[in-house]
Amino acid sequence: MTLTFSLRSEHKQEMEKSCTLLIHFDKGTPAMANEIKEALEGNDVPAKIDAMKKAISLLLNGETLPQIFIMIVRYVLPSEDHTIQKLLLLYLEIIEKTDAKGKVLPEMILICQNLRNNLQHPNEYIRGVTLRFLCRLNETEIIEPLIPSVLQNLEHRHPYIRRNAILAVMSIYKLPQGEQLLVDAPEMIEKLLSTEQDQSAKRNAFLMLFNCAQDRAINYLLTHVDRISDWGELLQMVVLELIRKVCRTNRGEKGKYIKIIISLLNAPSSAVIYECAGTLVSLSSAPTAIRAAANTYGQLLLSQSDNNVKLIVLDRLIELKSSHRDIMVDMVMDVLRALSSPNLDIRRKTLDIVLDLITPRNINEVVLMLKKEVVKTQSGELEKNGEYRQMLIQAIHSCAIKFPEVASTVVHLLMDFLGDSNVASAIDVVIFVREIIETNPKLRVSIITRLLDTFYQIRAARVCTCALWIIGEYCLSLSEVENGIATIMQCLGELPFFSVSEEPEVTDTSKKPQPVSSSQVSSRRPAILADGTYATQSAASETAFSPPTLVQGSLTAGNLRSLLLTGDFFLGAVIACTLTKLVLRLEEVQTSKVEVNKASTQALLIMVSMLQLGQSPVLQHPIDSDSYDRIVLCIRLLCNTGDDIRKIWLQSCRQSFVKMLSEKQLRETEEQKAKAQVSHAQPDDLIDFYHLKSRKGMSQLELEDEVQDDLKRATGEFIKDGDDANKLNRILQLTGFSDPVYAEAYVTVHHYDIVLDVTVINRTKETLQNLCLELATMGDLKLVERPQNYTLAPESSKQIKANIKVSSTETGVIFGNIVYETSNVLERTVIVLNDIHIDIMDYISPAVCTDAAFRTMWAEFEWENKVAVNTMIQDEKDFLDHIINSTNMKCLTAPSALGGECGFLAANLYAKSVFGEDALVNVSIEKQADGKLSGYIRIRSKTQGIALSLGDKITLKQKGGI
């Protein structure tokens, strides 16, 4: 296929040229016409090649170079060099061949003679490239004398020439006057197709019939339906394209074509098999057809080694899952086999598909497969085993939440990874354990026992804090409480955490001790001895002691001690709270007051030692005020406990956790309902009774298809989402009502492109000639097609379609004008159009991610936009709802965390663009004394465009009402 690249002139859009080859041009050193002339006149072939490239580059960038044409005719046309001949054809492709009135220039007769000679040249390459050049010519006067030579090449012995001659015939036949030039071309190509042996030439011949004489192509296909499996890959791909086109226009005939598609599912080419599966899904909704397509995708997923191919196949499986979930459920284990790929993106997408397809029938097999994969990650052969293990743990977590009965088979295996070097993986495990121990009361005893046994292996502070909370909440029996206290004390090691050691005594007895003065006596200060007790020392005797040092403990010192000695006093506060809960519960389950007092004393000693460590000079950073207050509160609580306080600590905490879990489950249920497609049937739709239909001559596949179509029609699936009212909202007026030409545009935003359907109305009594819609863009928007000239009759209208490519999520602007000529006025008239602003909201959609993932992205993303709150809204929650509606984002903060009347509000919002870009927003607002809101909205993203565009959108919208 020929790819056309368009190079624009910087100054005048009408100077734009197109070329089938993209040639680099350095604008800093443009070549002069005289230099090009000298090089063309010489006999140096490399110099001629360089001069031709410079001439083509200048022409593509708006230069005319009229004096070069004669030099090329004299010195370049006779050249036998293949490269020069190829460049000559590129030059002929881009030069102007007609005058202002549209007539062919007289000097083009020289070109016709050269082309005729090339079409009869003994060299196959010269003939072939000339035939390809004719495919890009639109001037009938130039092509007409060459037709006999083109037809002669259809019977050439070399297949390279035959296949290009067929393409030339097709392009000539598609010209406005092509049917008059080649009346019997379809019949000629059909005869050639029946005798042709070369696969590429055969494909081109069938393509010509497909585009120019579709009935002949269909007749040939149905006549040779038994030999389709023997055709080459290229021809089979065109056959599938023909089937899609025919069935799209006449769905009643798809039964006989679906049989052809199913027969091609056994083709040796992977590309043909992939296209067959896609065609089946687009044409039929019968379970047999969908199952065949799904099995085909599954085979491609396992047989292809290219990661990009696997990702594309997984995308197709995701589409099948959304529309045919029942069929995809049976393929869960086949999809899971894609986990053998080492690519993390493939594994992540595979797990996402499988987690949506788990049912009570396959949950055990899925979990067993995931457990095997988790065990494989312990080998340590791959460098990304930690990330893969984290993905597997999250998947198992989701399975256990949906089906609690499988939790008992996986929870103990996962608890082995609490001490994993990958902190994120260990955090996922401990969060999973925290949720399972609440939702599965039967597993509480075994989980607590296993957690106490493996607690010493945990090395991450965040994992320790969550594990300590589990110990404090779910150690209920006497033995569990005692083991919990003993485990914590063992992991803390011996007290104190730091000491002041005395230096060796002086052996020289000749030196007598000096008397202590009154000033020295008054400057006594406390000292901490090795056993944790206090002693006093004078300032004069300070030289006998070394500075305080940390006591690392023995070789068996636990993980909690090492983390505390690094200055992590948030962990210290969690230890104090856990010990407090255990002591309070010990008072309920222990009858011996002595044991209770002993445990309480040990807990108090630990807390006091942590406070001393936090206020000592041995650490660079002292204890923070929040942790200090929390530990002091625990000390006061153990010294004086009331029933109300005991109820808060032993019951209210778990009730809050249960409420959090129920809200999380409710949010997940609402998200699943939102994803489900809601279909409605119109009350006046016709009812088609399937059982009353004639089944004569219909295959089982066609019968199933009829049933599925009826079901879709009954549930309203054929009804489009957008109604006429929504379409009217997307119509933009481009010109004024008083302008001689009225224009309006209907904007359709797809994922990666924008389509403008522009309606242009001639409101005058004159014929408008060379009317052209000229558009330009600002931002990451690019025009795909060149503007065309139209002739508009009086008071008539024209529909003009413009395609614009979108390359990133950024607010863009489309502007331009309409230019036309009239017979009375020689000058061209220009009407400036209103600007079309492309909204970023069309490219981002609400999404969900975990809090940990949000924090990670927030720390990694480098672009931030900070917008000050400036609004007339006086309620914090109303303002947050207004921002959510204006930005099309999802609020990740739980509703319970947004309740209350404290005067402050902080929430996290998240969305993803169609290009896979992440958009993070943090809203932090405070209610002032005068009732107004103040604060900031911070936006972070990996790209600058999202941060700036979202900031502009919020600035524009935040002043508005709800």
UniProtKB/TrEMBL annotation:
The keyword Transport belongs to this UniProt entry's keyword annotation: yes
Residues of the Clathrin/coatomer adaptor adaptin-like N-terminal domain: 34-489
Pfam families xrefs: Adaptin_N, Coatamer_beta_C, Coatomer_b_Cpla
Gene Ontology terms describing biological process: endoplasmic reticulum to Golgi vesicle-mediated transport; intra-Golgi vesicle-mediated transport; intracellular protein transport
Signal peptide: none
Keyword presence, Cytoplasm: yes
Entry function: The coatomer is a cytosolic protein complex that binds to dilysine motifs and reversibly associates with Golgi non-clathrin-coated vesicles, which further mediate biosynthetic protein transport from the ER, via the Golgi up to the trans Golgi network. Coatomer complex is required for budding from Golgi membranes, and is essential for the retrograde Golgi-to-ER transport of dilysine-tagged proteins.
Protein name as annotated: Coatomer subunit beta
Organism: Erythroxylum novogranatense
